[in-house]
Amino acid sequence: MKTYGVGVIGCGYWGPNLVRNFARNPRTQVLAVCDSRHERAAKVGAEYRVPVVTDQVRELIAAPGIDLVVVATPSFTHFELAREALEAGRHVLVMKPLTTTSEHAEELCQLAHRQGLLLAVDHTFVFTGAVRHMRSLIESGEVGDLYYFDSVRINLGLIQTDVNVVWDLAPHDVSIMDYLIGQEPASVAAQAAGHGGSPTENIAYLTVRYAGSLLGAVHVNWLAPAKVRRTIVGGSKRMMIYDDMEPSEKLKVYDKGVSISSDPSDEYQFMISYRSGDMHAPRLDTREALAVEADNIVAAMDGREPLVSDGRAGLRVVRILEAAQRSIEQGGVLISLNGVPAAAG
């Protein structure tokens, strides 16, 4: 079977992790690495014996044998780099968020389609064993009708100066929400604030409404005394808690719920029934999420399966983030999306 050549742009925080996983994948070979600071590219290149080490993006994109270009650079550079790679006939994997505007994300999706190329987005958490198991439970009907998605991603730092906490942390949770719910959102509202002299907002609350009464809530914060990575999904049959800080039982599924019925002859007479059953922690795939992602990209390049996190998924996430930013700038107003009527509050 064909071995695919990979070039990675960006050898700072996240790029080396992608280099490591593509170097270990039996179907891919890292042929080139690039960073504006040549010494960083040289360090990664030496560790994984990469033939081409450069600080020139065009040299990497034009390097012989490159099938996939990985863009692991600051978000404001994603659009131009991804566009150049697609125009050169390369498949592309871009770190989150895909771009900083939905207009640019849409343009990349259309360009990839015209070129007959793959555009993948590194929504890393959708490849974790816990999130994939949550999706399988939802799709099988075991969770029932979805009621809400509630996530918290907080810690002390790292405060960024080029993006706020929404664009830095929220893409993780919004991508999980998009993957699990599988619906177009109706509206977004958000509030945020900056503290301690920060040039950007460092705490934010996002509320995403879907058709009917399904709600999504995301809390992100750079100023918390403890690191929390927790997602709760509630349904009519089951409830799930995904705690990424748990060393072993990262996902817990609860047979708990509530049903409310009313006496039609008496508007004040309600019958409330609580269900409190067992909790179980399912066995999960413990492979590194990036390794699973690399396998999916290889399978997609083979034409054997679709991308799990493609450009359209990246576009949907950017649209929610963009709407949240507009809401923040307008004092928390509701921003409608897609013309879908939002449920009354």
Summarize the structure.
The protein is α/β, with parallel strands linked by helices and 345 residues long.
Describe the structure.
This protein has 345 residues and is an alpha/beta fold. It folds into two domains: 4-122, NAD(P)-binding Rossmann-like Domain (Rossmann fold, 3-Layer(aba) Sandwich); 126-286 and 319-336, Dihydrodipicolinate Reductase, domain 2 (2-Layer Sandwich). It is built from nine helices and 15 strands. It has helices at 15-24, 38-47, 57-61, 78-87, 102-115, 129-140, 165-181, 289-302, 311-329, and strands at residues 4-9, 28-34, 52-54, 66-71, 91-95, 119-122, 146-156, 187-193, 203-209, 215-221, 223-235, 239-243, 251-262, 270-280, 335-336. It is globular, with a radius of gyration of 22 Å. The chain starts with a strand and ends in a 9-residue tail after the last strand.
Q: Return Rg in Å.
A: 22 Å
Briefly note the CATH topology name of the largest domain.
Dihydrodipicolinate Reductase, domain 2
Proportion of helical residues: 25-40%
- The count of strands amounts to 15
Name the shape in a single word.
globular
Span of the ends, CA to CA: 55 Å
Biggest pleated sheet? 9 strands, mixed
Number of domains: 2
Coarse structural class = alpha/beta
By oligomeric state, this entry counts as single chain
Annotated CATH architecture of the largest domain: 2-Layer Sandwich
Strand order of the largest sheet: 14-13-12-11-7-10-9-8-15
What percentage of the residues does DSSP assign to strands (E)? Answer: 25-35%
* CATH homologous superfamily (4th level) name of the largest domain: Dihydrodipicolinate Reductase, domain 2
